[in-house]
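Summary for the steering committee. One of the milestones for this cycle was to obtain a three-dimensional model of the protein with zinc ion bound, which we needed before selecting residues for the alanine scan. The sequence and ligand used are listed below.
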Amino acid sequence: MSMRNRESRSKDYNGGVKVGCIFCDIASGKIPAKKVYEDDKIIAFDDIAPQAPVHVIVIPKKHLSGIMAIDDKQADLITNIFRAVKGIAKKKNVESSGFRVVVNHGKDAGQAVEHLHFHVIGGRAMEWPPG
Ligand code: 5GP
Ligand code: ZN
C-alpha cells in the first residue's frame, strides 16, 4: 500500500485534515496566521519565527505529511504551489534580489511540522551550504 493510501485510510484523517496538525488548523482558519496568498487548494502565511525579512510558508490545504507523500496525483498542486511562490516573491519584492525555497524532510533536515510546506525565504543574502 502506498504512503498516500495508508494516510487517507487513517482514522486521523477527515476530508484531508489531520487532527492536531498546526498547519491543517491554519488552513481551516482555526489558528490565525498572517495570510499572504490563498486559493481553494493552497494557503501561504508569514512564518511565526521568521529567519529573514521575508519568510513565508506555503502549504497545500489538504494534509500531506511531507515531500515523500507526493505522487503523480499532486502534479497540478505542486505546479500551482510554485505559481503561488512566484506571486509571493513579487508581492514581497524579492523576485529580483533573490530568494530561497526550502522543503525540510525528516529528522536530519529538522522538519518540525509534519504537513508538507515550502519555506520562501528572502530579503537578505544567504549562506551556502546551509547549516
Ligand atoms: P519546518 O522546520 O517543519 O520545516 O518548519 C516549520 C515552520 O513553521 C517553522 O519555520 C516555524 O517557525 C513555523 N511555524 C510553526 N508553528 C507555526 C504557527 O503556528 N504559525 C506560523 N505562522 N508559523 C509556524
Ligand atoms: Zn496538516
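Key point for the committee: The longest strand covers residues 54-60.
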